[in-house]
Amino acid sequence: MAIDLDLCSACQACVVACYAENNIATVGEEQIQKDRGLHWIRIERYWKTEWPQPRALFLPLLCQHCDRAPCESVCPVFASVHSDDGLNLQVYNRCFGTRYCANNCPYKVRVFNWFKGEFPEPVNAQLNPDVTVRGVGIMEKCTFCVQRIRRARQQARAEGREVLEGEVVPACVQTCPTGALTFGDLNDPNSLAARLAASDRAYHLLEFLDTEPSISYLKGLGAESG
Amino acid sequence: MSRGVIFAVIEGQEGIARAMRRLARMGVSGKRIELLTDIPYPPALLGGETSDTRLPLFTSLGLVGGLALGLFLSVGTLLLYPLIVGSQAVISPPVFVIVYELTILGLVVMTFVGFVYENRFRKDPLHDWVIPADIEGHVLIVQVPPDMVESRIRTALSEEGARILPIEDFEAERPEGEALVIERGPS
Amino acid sequence: MARLPNWARLPRYSRGPTRGLGHEAVPEAERQIAYEHRDEHLQPGASSRVQDAVADGTIEDVPPTEEELARMDAALDGIVLGSMTRIGPGYLLLALVLGFGTLSLFGAWLYQIFEGIGVAGINRPVFWGFYITSFVFWIGVSHSGTLISAILRVLNVEWRRPLTRGAEAMTLFSLMVGALFPLIHLGRVWKFYFMIPYPNVRELWPNFHSALVWDLVAILTYMTSSALFLFMPMIPDMATARDRTTGIRRRIYGVLALGWRGSQQQWHRLHLAMKVYTIVIIPVAVSVHSIVSWDFAMTTNEGWHSTIFAPYFVIGAIYSGVAALITVLIFVRRGLGLQNYITKFHFDRLGLILLAVSVIWFYMFFAQTLTNWYGGNPVDRELEHLHIFGAMAPLWWFMVVVNVLLPFFTLWFKRVRRSLPTMLVITLLINMGMWIERFLIVVGSNVRNHLPFDWGDYTPALPEIIIAAATFAMFAFLYVALSKALPFVSLWEVKEGWRLDKWRTQGIVEEETEPVEEPQGVSPPPSENRPGEVLA
Questions:
Q1: Distance between CA A190 and CA A177 in Å, rounded?
Q2: Chain B residues with CB inside 8 Å of A72's CB?
Q3: I want to staple C212 with a disulfide (CB 3.0 to 4.6 A). Which of A76, B83, C271, C360 is the partner?
Q4: CATH (residue range A2-218)
């Protein structure tokens, strides 16, 4: 995935879309104040200048799907494993809530179900049947909408072809009004995502930790640079 | 009536040492002597013979078993169902941690099992004798070697201060002040 | 009346009267003087006052006679076994209060299971809080028993004899309490068995690359070893208890004595097994707390990612373990009436060990702090600022004062070490400081990370406070409850210790009737016996 920070307007549409697509429970104001939100993608806001000229920098942060994910090796029961497509998978029914993976994630993108999630009317009518509803005590995080990926691959296999460029669109990418998010196959050098990742403007978050994340952030030559 | 077994009661640590050394000088092998004491006396002070025991065998079995289990769990299971996490190789330092701990666990458990087994099930020289609980002093049981005369051992022990107890082969009430009854338990 | 099975009707081999417990035979005053004094001046490294007296010739350094030994044995048996059979109203009240505390632990835990782990105060990014702090603390306390039992035994330090049983019991109980916490802090505790390696349909095994699985294996090994290390030398004492008690107690102790007769072959086996255990349990103890420290050191968190954690935690464990041992021994000594056997001399020596360990701990702590500060990593800098000057400063400074300055400026003085109320206060403060140190590491490093938007804080919630506090009640309850079932002084080891001095210098036999070759290590005896006078 590539995220263009110069295009991101911090409208939070991706956050809402992710909630809708992945059956994420809302936890209520009191729990949010205790830092227990279940956002799989969040917009981090850093103040660049203060009042009276406040300027903020925005960083959409979701699971980086690191190639050398620190969260995978510490889960005692293999609830966090790496797939062949380069995804970092979270196996909900295997997780029993030690929260060691969340301690080891330097990006703190893993969120935990502190209570049983509630879906009051009429929200429960729009639950996505392709995605598990998690119970209490389970770790979760962005999956790059793995249900959409799997569906596209099944479709492609049924039709006897490869997955096409642009066929897989996670919910956040689909919803972003400015097109800041781009998703594609990094192994295909012709895909947009791979070309963006190879551009001069690309960098990785917390690169010095050597986690080799799959997400490239693009920045520079824009209004906020310098 | 001689069954080839002598029961004696000894008072005091000096009495024990004297009796044991006398028996050793007479040539009675340690395998035929059983001395019951409340604290351990160093074998060197009692004539120097220690018993044979199969405890090291149990310990080694435990070590090997623990090692095997540790290797199976840390290497074998990953080879059976390879799940790569964090790009870490299968054979790596965590293997050492698991193998080390489980080896010691096996060693420790089997040592205890061996200890209990040898105490309960192994036939020490005179294991199946049941002795009444109200004897004052240390009990010494000697199985007379076939090439010795029982009375010679009796005399020697009496000289060193041991009190010989007669054996009756029936169970009876013991009137006060009379000879104690010692029964043979089931083998 | 039904006959006991064959192996339970084995002989009483220990000396003393059949009925009753023996200590009535020895007058109170004589007991006091004889045993305290005897313990003191027979220890290698006896107090300077006594050593001076021995040098002057005002006390003769002569081992006890047969008769004195008989009385000392009987007194020891009487006091220890007597305390096991006496149940008074004070004891029942104490047991009731502590039992209630233990029940509140499980009550709070059940509440947490039904409501969800969210009733605790943990959040993102502080995913571990009071529970893991308590876990590390209790596993740390468990190192006391290993130090006293195993290390001092290997070094042939004779004054450890009355302390081993109580210390080993402390190890086992604190391990039992500490091992609850990996279960308590789970989000889905009913699935805990996923971590146990067993063949299943999905062919899934635990992840042996994870430090939590190393925890499981290490704590399992340590708990098993400690339990067996406690139980095996207790078998001869179980046999003594079997012989001295009646009724249901006799049957239970008979079962627990596992066919112990006291024959020389059995003693030989016990010695062999103990030698194996002693040697093996020391590296196990070191590895256990290293592995617990690697729960933290194997992460990418800047406050945890330190190579010194393994030795730092092991020394911290020994530190809090020895302090906790002193605390527990002060209470046990009073509660079981063991003043004659656990003497001020022991606290003197334990206090010196505590002082030495506190200095080593400070060295590790300083090395870590210095390295972190020097590197200038922004997260480290932020954490330091938080700890030393920021919101966590009161905790940090309390820890430094109590763990570094307090032992260094008090434990040098013999008068302090021999004063039990002072030692109680010092060791309680040290353990408070060590608990806070664990808190600062577990929580105090999670509140800051690489992304300032995700910094957090932590407020403990009521279930967490109840559970963390109730573990102390549970620990005390285990001790109090089992003090009536298990002898908390190792009877045969103490008795052996009384005789060792004489065996080493004079051998057993006072006179020889005929010239013989002496076995090694026995020298000619003195020509007269010392009368059974006690020293004033």
A1: 24
A2: 85-86
A3: A76
A4: 3.30.70.20
Do the Cβ atoms of A77 and C206 come within 8 Å? yes
**Interchain proximity B85–A70, CB inside 8 Å:** no
Q: Which residues of A touch C121 (CB under 8 A)?
A: 34
Instruction: Please write down the long-range contacts of C380-383, taking CB distance under 8 Å and 24 or more positions apart.
Output: C380/C302, C380/C303, C382/C448, C383/C302, C383/C303, C383/C444, C383/C445, C383/C448
The helix (run of H) or strand (run of E) holding residue C318 is helix C309-336
**pLDDT tens, per residue, chain A with 226 residues:** 999 999 999 999 999 999 999 999 999 999 999 999 999 999 999 998 888 888 999 999 999 999 999 999 999 999 999 998 899 999 999 999 999 999 999 999 999 999 999 998 888 899 999 999 999 999 999 999 999 999 999 999 999 999 998 899 999 999 999 999 999 999 999 999 999 999 989 999 999 999 999 999 999 864 454 4
| Residues C376-400 pLDDT 10s | 889 999 999 999 999 999 999 999 9
Per-residue tokens: C350: 């334990």
In Å, how far is A115's CA from the nearest CA of chain C? 5
Q: Which amino acid is at C85?
A: T
CA distances to B176, C20, C239 from C246, rounded to whole Å, are 21, 10, 13
Residues on chain A touching B88 (C-beta within 8 angstroms): 73
Separation CA C158–CA C329 (nearest Å): 17
Q: What is the pLDDT of residues C67-90, one digit of tens each?
A: 777 777 888 888 888 888 888 888
Whether residues B86 and A70 touch (CB distance < 8 A) is answered with yes
Helix-strand-coil split of chain B, %, nearest 5 = 45, 10, 40
- Name the pTM for this structure: 0.87
Contact in structure between B101 and B94 (CB atoms under 8 Å): no
Report how far residue B155's alpha carbon sits from residue C171's, in angstroms, rounded to the nearest whole number: 52
Q: How far apart are CA C386 and CA C394, in angstroms?
A: 11
Task: Name the H helices within A34-133.
Answer: 70-74, 100-104
Please judge whether B43 and C15 are an interchain contact, meaning their C-beta atoms are less than 8 angstroms apart: no
Task: Please state the separation of Cα B174 from the chain's center in Å.
Answer: 31
Distance from CA of B96 to the nearest CA of A (A): 16
Evaluate whether B75 touches C269 at the Cβ level (below 8 Å). no
Q: Which of C117, C123, C204 sits opposite A34 (nearest CB)?
A: C123
Which amino acid is residue B127, in one-letter code? H
What does R_g of chain C's alpha carbons equal in angstroms?
26
Q: String of b and e for C94-127 (b: at least 16 CB within 10 Å)?
A: bbeebeebbebbeebbeebbeebbbbbbbbbbbb
Total residues belonging to chain C: 536
CB atoms within 10 A of CB C385: 13
**Which among C360, C387, C372 is positioned nearest to C441, based on CA atoms?**
C387
Q: Is the peptide bond before A122 cis (omega within 30 degrees of 0)?
A: yes
**CB of B165 less than 8 A from some CB of C:** no
C132: nearest Cα among A74, A99, A79: A99
On whether the CB atoms of residues B63 and B57 are closer than 8 A, the answer is: no
Query: Pick from C203, C258, C271: which is nearest to B80 by CB?
Result: C203
Residue C3 is classified by DSSP as P
- Distance from C-alpha of C105 to C-alpha of C111, rounded to nearest angstrom: 10
Sort B44 into a burial class: Cβ within 10 Å, 0-12 / 13-18 / 19+.
Answer: middle
Q: How far apart are CA A171 and CA A174, in angstroms?
A: 5
